[in-house]
Design a protein that fits this description.
The structure holds 2 protein chains of 2 kinds. By secondary structure, chain A is of the alpha+beta class. Helices cover 25% and strands 22% of the residues of chain A. In chain A, strand 16, helix 8 and strand 17 form a beta-alpha-beta unit. Chain B is mainly α. Chain B contains 14 helices and 2 strands; from the N terminus they run ααααββαααααααααα. The longest helix of chain B has 36 residues. Classes of the chains: A alpha+beta, B mainly alpha. Chains A and B meet through helix 1, strand 10, helix 4, helix 9 and helix 10 of A and helix 2, helix 3, helix 5, helix 7 and helix 8 of B.
């Protein structure tokens, strides 16, 4: 036994010694044709567009029919020409000739049709339920038929990556052959993703040949960046005010917004089919909702809660092409807020600092996801801003599950939205079904707004839908924004913050949707190293 | 003797089966009361884009549209045939996920296990041999500190000091960033393993050390130690020539019985070091409501720990001459 332990000890000595030798010989690796990114983006179930891969940015391995440029204009990618039939039900798309997948097999209209039909039944994170079916007319023409007119379907043409019909199967996500600018070399699950430029890509070859995506936790990623092992790092804005040697801060504007959802109907004891209470007597009063909107100092929220990394939000689609500029108003105006409340009969009669009307106190709970410190910060700040005008807004952290399964239709909730498709606006403000969940949780309903939203969705082209989207926000008389029904109190749009290697040029980043991290790769083909 | 061994194994096998059934039923009951909606957890931020109709399609794909009891019986039948079902978050058979992840975890756990066992034993014997000396006191101080320190905290401290400030060890992953498993040399693997393994073993060392120390002290005060001392043997000599044999048996048992704690510690250590093993998969499965994977891991870890304990029993019989005699006599 003694002898055994002794040899164990000897082994250990050798072991420790070899580690020390290693640390001396192990030098930094970073050759410049490789780029290491820590921006998240691991898709545990694989890189399969039919299960939702790429819905938030470019799918990288696959290419899409259309895409958006840095100003969010729709431009062709795989498609050469696309037209919508007179009845607005059928898209006819002519695709590029001569495109091949990274394995060399040709990409034809058949693959496109297969992709759309298969995505419909796959049961993943992509929802193309408006689709009736897709058909390959010939090798380069595909028709995509919808169940009813829906211009927002174009978003799927922009985001759904085309997969090869022949190779698609249960293992596709781990071996994603596509026609995108990069191809997958290896994926060490939970660790890293190594991709390489696809030399068969029909577009311009990216100047950076190898990308390594690191899937470490926030702390480890930051540590790796500090150790000089990462070239692009996504950080939450509260970590953006620091210096990382060799890196510069890259701030990207976004529509990743946060706002207060108001229950729009009074609580008369009604419940959803699942049994959730509906309505709130205080927020059902438009005077309360308007007063909240005018009293809040959004600039102060940006400075105080977002550390300056963001901008005030007035609507759900700020600065997107379908944003109606007429909805902006002057906030941080407690006088106006008080005037509105007084006029509507909300007065503080018992001297406790909170207004009442017919015995009802102007108070409500502001719920936020207790895991989210940013939403907590917003809720707390708002509570402070509303007290001087006589409204008691009590911030309360709750688990997301409890908010969703119990409280969402009868309480004010801090939500975050923001998408590149106006469909989200439709879902939030169109009269909802009996069990809306996150969509129009406040049970807002305005027939005029509904009409505009329906008209927008049924428009002939995306350009022609834009005026209707704008009118739904505010048409001069009504709308869901503050001049109209003041359905929400939008607060802030976040900036997404990244640290980027000083010698890397990442071009002009697109305004990003909800979801921080992966969207920065949208224009990755244009990235290049610049000399120091 | 062979009959005895056969009996032993049959008994153990029956135990294992009963244990697995109990563990599976209990875990499933617990999981089915979890407030986590697996579809919400799966969708993540995409939740805002998914219509109620699409949710139903997803529920169908996973069989969530059926009542819990029916799902459990379906799952149990599959398991009886050796199929653990499909992981919802990885979209792969649970067995494939377990295999992939365990291979990575195995080396981590193995190194940590050897380190904590070996070092813990030596430290324990030394501390026990020189009871109340400065050496004993410092070993004890170390052991108590470690026993009361959370693994993940130790991990973060080590990471900050050795990886970030000194830059001696890598900050993440099981092999160098940008290279593949095959390209990574043996030394690179070890280089990436060293910090998580040390973290994992530090806490384990404390347990083994304290236990071994107690036993050594006991042995040092025994009659045979007194006899040896009377013959002029020094403390260290008594400890290694006489006490060691007696201390070894409980130490070995403890070492194998510690597999459960090792498993638990690995979850935390892997989380801190972004080490993609079974521990991280467990956390993911829990957070995201992946019932098949979670149950698969539960069954696997139960088997793993059970085997560890059985091995401890076996070794006990082999190492202890008294037990060996009993066996041969039968």
């Amino acid at each position: 036994m003694f002898k055994k332990t002794y040899t164990g000890k000897r082994l250990l000595q050798i072991f420790v010694l070899s580690i020390f030798l290693l640390t001396i010989t192990c030098t930094a690796f970073a050759a410049k044709d490789k780029l290491v990114l820590a921006v998240g983006g691991e898709n545990a179930e694989g890189y399969d567009p039919l299960l939702g891969w790429g819905a938030y940015g470019n799918p990288l391995f696959q290419s899409t029919l259309l895409k958006r440029d840095s100003n969010l204009n729709i431009i062709p990618d795989l498609a050469e020409k696309w037209t919508l039939s007179k009845d607005r039900l059928t898209w006819t798309v002519k695709i590029r000739k001569g495109v091949v997948f990274s394995d060399g097999s040709p990409l034809t209209a058949k693959d496109v049709a297969f992709t759309y039909n298969k995505a419909l039944e796959s049961g993943g994170k992509v929802d193309i339920s408006p689709l009736e079916s897709a058909t390959a007319v010939d090798d380069s023409t595909v028709t995509i038929k919808l169940k009813e007119p829906d211009i927002t379907f174009i978003q799927h043409l922009i985001t759904l990556g085309i997969v090869p019909a022949k190779l698609y199967g249960p293992n596709y996500g781990r071996n994603p052959i596509g026609s995108g600018p990069y191809k997958l070399v290896r994926w060490d699950e939970g660790q890293q993703l190594i991709v390489e430029a696809n030399d068969k890509y029909y577009g311009e070859q990216p100047s950076i040949k190898t990308l390594i995506f690191l899937f470490s936790d926030e702390d480890a990623s930051l540590a790796a960046a500090r150790a000089g092992q990462v070239d692009v790092l996504g950080v939450p804005s509260n970590l953006a005010r620091q210096d990382i040697p060799g890196m510069k801060l890259h701030v990207v504007k976004s529509v990743d917004n946060r706002g207060l959802m108001f229950p729009m109907v009074p609580n008369v004891g009604k419940k959803t089919p699942k049994g959730l209470a509906i309505g709130n007597n205080v927020t059902a009063d438009i005077a309360i909702r308007k007063a909240v909107n005018y009293a809040i100092d959004r600039e102060a929220l940006v400075v105080g809660v977002l550390d300056g990394y963001g901008r005030p939000a007035f609507g759900v689609v700020d600065d997107l092409p379908w944003d109606n500029a007429a909805i902006r108003f002057k906030d941080n105006d407690p006088k106006k807020a008080i005037a509105i409340l007084e006029k509507a009969g909300w007065k503080d009669t018992d001297g406790d600092g909170i207004r009442e009307k017919n015995g009802l106190k102007a108070e409500f709970t502001v719920l936020y996801n207790s895991k989210d410190s940013l939403r907590q910060g917003l809720a707390l700040a708002i509570s402070d801003m509303l007290r001087p005008i006589g409204i008691q807004a009590t911030p309360k952290g709750e688990s997301w599950d409890r908010i969703k399964n119990d409280l969402t239709h009868s309480n004010v909730v801090v939500y975050g939205f923001g998408d590149h498709s106006p469909l989200e606006m439709y879902n939030l403000y169109h009269t909802s079904g009996p069990e809306p969940m996150y969509w129009n949780a406040g049970f807002y309903s305005n027939p005029v707004v509904d009409k505009y939203l329906d008209q927008a969705r049924a428009a002939k082209s995306f350009e022609e839908s834009i005026p209707y989207w704008k009118k739904a926000q505010w048409d001069g008389k009504t709308g869901f924004t503050v001049p109209g029904d003041a359905t929400w109190a939008w607060l802030v749009n976040l900036d997404h913050t990244y640290f980027v290697n000083k010698s890397l040029d990442v071009g002009k980043s697109q305004m990003e949707p909800h979801g921080h991290g992966w969207p920065i790769t949208t224009n990755i083909q244009e990235w290049k190293w610049i000399s120091e | 003797m062979t009959k005895r061994i056969l009996q032993f194994f049959v008994k153990k096998a029956v135990h294992l089966v009963l244990l697995l059934i109990a563990v599976a039923t209990l875990s499933y009951t617990l999981v089915s009361y979890s407030p986590i909606d697996p579809i919400d957890a799966y969708l993540g931020p995409s939740i805002l884009k998914i219509s109620p109709e699409q949710r139903e399609v997803i529920a169908q794909r996973w069989g969530l549209d059926q009542p819990p009891i029916k799902r459990f019986s379906k799952w149990a039948k599959q398991v009886a045939k050796g199929n653990l079902g499909k992981s919802t978050i990885f979209n792969e058979p649970v067995i494939t996920v377990l295999k992939k992840r365990f291979v990575t975890s195995f080396w981590l756990m193995f190194v940590a296990w050897l380190l904590s066992g070996g070092l813990g034993f030596i430290l324990g014997v030394l501390a026990g041999a020189f009871e109340d000396s400065t050496l004993d006191k410092s070993i004890r101080l170390y052991a108590y500190t470690m026993a009361s320190t959370p693994t993940f905290w130790v991990g973060i401290v080590l990471l900050t000091v050795f990886s970030v400030q000194l830059g001696w060890t890598p900050v993440c992953c099981a092999w160098p960033v940008g290279s593949s498993e095959m390209e990574a040399t043996f030394f690179q693997r070890i280089h990436h393993l060293i910090l998580p393994a040390i973290t994992l073993s530090l806490v384990g060392i404390a347990q083994i050390t304290l236990h071994t120390r107690e036993k050594t002290i006991e042995a040092m005060h025994s009659d045979y130690a007194l006899f040896a001392r009377a013959q002029g043997e020094k403390d260290l000599g008594i400890a290694f020539r006489h006490a060691l044999r007696n201390v070894a048996i409980p130490a070995v048992t403890l070492q194998f019985a510690s597999l459960g704690e090792l498993f638990g510690g690995a979850v935390l250590a892997e989380q801190v070091f972004s080490y993609p093993g079974l521990g991280r998969a467990t956390v993911e499965a829990g957070y995201r409501g992946d019932v098949p994977l979670l149950l698969g891991i539960v069954l696997f870890s139960a088997t793993f720990v059970f085997i560890g304990n059985t091995v401890a029993d076996l070794i006990y019989m082999i190492v202890d001459p008294r037990m060996r005699k009993k066996w041969s006599a039968a």
